[in-house]
Amino acid sequence: xxxxKKKRKSGYxxxxxxxxSSLILxxxxxxxxxxxxxxxxxxxxxxxxxxxxxxxxxxxANDFFLYYKQWFFVxxxxxxxxxxxxxxLNDKKFLKLHIAFYPLIIYAVLTLISTLVSQHRSFGFSGIxxxxxxxxCLLGYALVVYYTFLILQSxxxxxxxxxxxxxxxxxxxxxxxxxxxxxxxxxxDFGKSLIAEKGVDPSILSFTFEKGRTYAxxxxxxxxxxxxxxxxxxxxxxxxxxNNTYEYVLYGLVIITQIISMFGSQSKTGLISIAVALLLAxxxxxxxxxxxxxxxxxxxTCACIGFVVIxxxxxxxxxxxxxxxxxNNTTVDPNLTNLITTSDQVEVTYKGNTFFVSQxxxxxxxxxxxxxxxxxxxxxxSEDGYVFKILDSRFDGVLPIILKDDIVDFGLLIDNTPWxxxxxxxxxxxxxxxxxxxxxxxxxxxxxxxxxxESFGSGRGYxxxxxxPLLSKHIILGSGADTFVFEFPQYDYVAMTNYGFGAELITxxxxxxxxxxxQTGVISLICFIVFYCIYFVQSLLLYIRKKEFxxxxxxxxxxxxxxxxxxxxxxxxxxxxxxxxxxxxxxxVGFAINRIAIQDSKEIKKQ
Length: 607
Prior knowledge:
By secondary structure, this protein is an alpha+beta fold. The chain is 50% helix and 11% strand.
């Protein structure tokens, strides 16, 4: 009888499955791992957010990295669905289920219902400004997991797909590495001409990231960190197993270029995620790693050299970012803690003291403290209007302003930051003149957990502290796909300004888990976590006790550490169409590998 175990370890088994039909079935997956992340093309559109006073009235926008990725992935997901239907009609035994797919189905159903009943469902179907991850993408993720699980039947098919992923990762790594060294293709005349829309002068295009900062084709340096943290551990694990010579070269180049890209992105989370993933790899491969010290030492040396070189080229930016990432800079409360606009006055809380500003019938400022005592003022400047000083030491940092224009009624210069107000006779309410030149209300948003630690994680503490209270509204159903921007308290201008977001529109929670909890509901989030935990536990039990690993086991461990790294990155990075499809595809690969590994174990025991 043929030694099945020997065949598996050699990687020889099932090569006959790589027929034309197999390659056709793998084609949608090849597109996801190679073409999808590299799509870059200009798309001019109306964001349809101009109706909201927390957004500019001129809602014209340009996208380069997300819009076409979204619809290309939707096309691929539709193709996968069509193939599944055709195969199922021809072969009733084709469809299979895994216990982990039940929570995945619940997640998908809740995602769809949340979007269908959403007040902003149109954005859930079309995708939204700076996100473009619509409901069809979210459903497509679940579908890709299932399709990958069904289609992959052999080691050779899986290895071919992993090699295709390596090619895509290498191209991304090369682009990112050039950017890290200050050579950005998309900021050259040639690169701009490639991605500009027809009729648009390429020379007017520009990207906001500083020279030496890596964003590759993934829209944001954070997503480079997420992608690299998933890819690097995966191919490091594969280096310790038997491969063809060209595969060693390919995987090595992928690791090197992705390390450079990650350093160039200055992603702290990526570094932490890789550390966690490699710790798991160390536990699973502890015996093998001792024998392969000659691989470990060069890898660690290259990583250290890469870090030193990139960090030096970026004026110590990466090292400083790591040092500052988790510093709590909000131990001292900001001076301005509250601004409230009412029907007859503006309430200001400064250094714990409250005063009220209004205007009399002659448009003179009237300022009273909490005890209704009139606060005296004196004019200290009068070029474009009148600037006053409050003659009260409690409010030394506050300068009331009256400008000579018809746009606003008065302003308050608080610690050198201007706040302007106007009385709206239509609604009988004072309103705030915001950064977009529009009048809007002010509100103080609820916060929890990270209150007082808003600078945690490069300002994520602020976003998380204001997002966590939203979960109580979305236990069963969420707000719908791509609708986080409508749920976040955009009128929390005081806190936004205090914690560094005064000039930004917050469109995402910077957390995969909070993003799911708000948009698709807490129950769907739990289902997603259960889905991954089933895979993680099954994989851990399957590989942790093995003394010898076959090539299929090697792939299983590689996928496990790669997906774990993504889950860790998800704590402080949200889902994006640039990276998420790779993760979901790898989940399908992981389930397929475990199925094959379990079948092999059973067949070996029968011999």
